[in-house]
Amino acid sequence: MNNLLKPVLVIAATCCMAFLLTLAPSKTFADENDIFLSPGVKLTPSTLNMKSKGKFITAHVRLPGAFSDELPPPADVTLHLVINDNETGDVVALRTARGFWGQLVVKFSRSEVQELIGENIDQFPATVSFSISIDFDNETLSYTDDTRVIKPGKKAK
Number of structural domains, the chain? Predict the structure, then answer.
């Protein structure tokens, strides 16, 4: 093989692999037995700053195979704060859209989520659990995810 062609092929192969990896479902939905097909939820950001003025908390929900892309969007999606195994408060989704591979992308108001946390958590940093309930016409799915919450103080000068 031509020595000038080798670096070009290596770069092309690397770019193709990087692109394909961005399309693959996240390992955050994995369990030990089924890396890519397990239903679940991943909330972003993974660390929530209580002083942030962002607009959204996003839930990336991996639905079970029975909930294919041909089904209509869910009737309702709600986020709950989980404290001592009990759900408290709720934030209704602002937007819901279908993603790739049976994924549902849900946007929640960041200010409403921060208000819910502020009413129930007083020690920071903290790790809080959220439950996402997804209501389809005849079935409700529920998944949980943990998020780190911080409330930084003033910066030293």
Answer: 1
pLDDT score of 46 = 92
Dist CA 73 CA 78 (whole Å) = 14
Q: Are 65 and 102 in contact (CB under 8 A)?
A: yes
Tokens (6 digits) for 22: 């961005």
Three-class secondary structure of residue 10 per DSSP: helix
Strand 140-150 and strand 86-92: the pairing is: unpaired
Q: Is the pLDDT of residue 155 over 70?
A: no
What is the rounded distance in angstroms from the CA atom of residue 80 to the CA atom of residue 88? Answer: 6
Beta strands 56-62 and 40-44 are: antiparallel
Domain that holds residue 60: 39-150
Summary mean pLDDT of the chain: 78
Query: Is pLDDT at 84 greater than 90 in this prediction?
Result: no
pLDDT for 23-49, tens place per residue?
Answer: 444 444 444 333 445 788 999 999 999
Can you tell me which residue has the tokens 């079970």?
64
Token pair, residue 52, equals 């942030």
pTM: 0.70
* 23 vs 21: CA distance, rounded Å: 5
Evaluate whether residue 10 is within a structural domain.
Answer: no
